[in-house]
């Protein structure tokens, strides 16, 4: 499985049917009827009333006259192949991954509208959002097979984390600027009082 594009990935699974005992010279395997559409017909078909919740399933390609070499490489066997295509439906992943992350980032940016005097609350809100995104990333990763690379969904959630970290940095910069302007205005007030 290649999950680089998860959750908008397409997986193609080959099903090989071949003779195991009889060699190519004794037995020829072929499809009885040629398929007419992506749901199949004749020799290989998908049940039109059966649907999968996470995938759209279709029969991708049929091949006749495939030859297979046995493991001991002593015999060549005749066979046929069908490719089953699984296209992941985006609705489930949209509800599970993309929308919650989007709303969490909005909540993270909402900390910018909290008063500058409430810096602890701003930091607590942003940190909570960051932890929620990290927990969501773990839940998404546990729902798919373990892979050593980042999927598209991982990149999206990490980018959302980056936006929340940027909002935390913005809060810190604004707090420092606010503190320095207060210090300058206090110093100016002291100078004015001395002059009077």
TrEMBL record:
It holds the Pfam family Neur_chan_memb. The chain crosses the membrane at residues 94-116, 147-168. It is a multi-pass membrane protein. Coiled coil: none annotated. Residues 1-88 form the Neurotransmitter-gated ion-channel ligand-binding domain. InterPro entries: GABAA/Glycine_rcpt, Neur_chan_lig-bd, Neur_chan_lig-bd_sf, Neur_channel, Neuro-gated_channel_TM_sf, Neuro_actylchol_rec, Neurotrans-gated_channel_TM. One of its GO terms (cellular component) is plasma membrane. Its main location: membrane. Residues 99-192 form the Neurotransmitter-gated ion-channel transmembrane domain. Keywords: Cell membrane, Ion channel, Ion transport, Membrane, Signal, Transmembrane, Transmembrane helix, Transport. It is found in: Cell membrane; Membrane. GO terms for molecular function: chloride channel activity; extracellular ligand-gated monoatomic ion channel activity; ligand-gated monoatomic anion channel activity; transmembrane signaling receptor activity. This is Gamma-aminobutyric acid receptor subunit beta-like. It comes from Galendromus occidentalis. The gene is LOC100906900.
